[in-house]
User: What shape does this take?
Amino acid sequence: MDAIDRKILAELQQDGRLTITELAARVQLSVSPCHRRLRDLEREGAIRGYRAAVDPAAVGLHFESLVFATLRWEDANTVTAFEEAVTAIPHVLQAQRLFGEPDYLLRIAAADIAAYQRLYDEQLVRLPGVQRLTSTLVMKNVIDDRPLPP
Assistant: This one.
């Protein structure tokens, strides 16, 4: 990956709806080579996809929590079952397996604290292998969905 590829990635992180003509102009290439590079970046997996960044509040999700999950056991079956169950919960926006304790960090969006409590009581505490859950409420997102550095 060279400097031009990095420019392409930076521009698309800022505005994923750029036309190929606009993108080529911004990275100072003609359309054909820019398009070829873009397809190569997509094929190689540097660009994983395109999507709209939706404001959670605009769709009624005004509440966010970070949940730290510690498992009783960390054998392969428990980890797989936990990860599959977490993946099936649409309100879990992000799940990261961590080194040390806790074992996982989950980012969860809900309509309000009552909706979060129902999700917690009905789904999160029933996740396979969970020993302990600790919730931290998000007061404010200071940096959210920042583009990767060049």
In short: The CA atoms of residues 68 and 105 lie 5 Å apart. The beta strands are 63-71, 92-97, 104-110, 130-137.
